[in-house]
Amino acid sequence: MTSQENPSAPPEITLRNFNLSDIDDLMVWATDDLVSRFCRWDTYTRKEDAVDYMNNSIIPHPWFKAICVDDRPIGAISVTPNMGSDRCRAELGYVLGSAHWGRGIATRAVKMVMSVVFEELPELERLEALVDVENPGSQRVLEKAGFVREGVLRKYSIQKGKARDLVMFSFLDSDSVI
Question: Which SUPFAM superfamilies does this chain map to (predicted)?
Fold first, then answer.
């Protein structure tokens, strides 16, 4: 039974590259203060700024995907590889429209990435994610996807003008994907 036949079933999701034509869908979550609360970026208030971000950051990014339902972006997920002697590590980031929270979508998207990223980035051995200590929902996403909580990094990053404590999670290439 599909999610269309059973409205309470979680929707099928896909990951794909962003296109500039996705801007209106991106604006749904990029303008939501609930969504951007723990993000490094501020809530978007102007479509022009979001278009610039798509053109200059999202589209040229080596691994930045739209999380889609019926081919419409409801969020995003990215893997940012490190360089040089740190090229064995990459940082995972994700964001999901608040209307889709609590349905397992982010966890499924993370697992989808984990199932392909180590093959697509052959030097990668460790995938990391940093989550604000006050964001238990995102911490649960990573734990359900098989990430290991490594510890709290105190005053690790300035976000929204304040030094924040972040929880470090990791997933190693040798770990099994659930």
Answer: Acyl-CoA N-acyltransferases (Nat)
- 163 forms beta bridges with 158
Rounded CA-CA distance 63/98 in Å is 23
> How far is residue 126's CA from residue 65's CA, in Å, rounded to a whole number?
19
pLDDT in tens, 51-62: 999 999 999 999
Nearest to 51 by CA among 87, 16, 19: 19
Q: What phi, psi does 21 have (nearest 5°)? A: -70, -10
R_g of the chain, CA atoms, integer Å? 16
CB atoms inside a 10 Å sphere around CB 62? 11
pTM of the complete model: 0.90
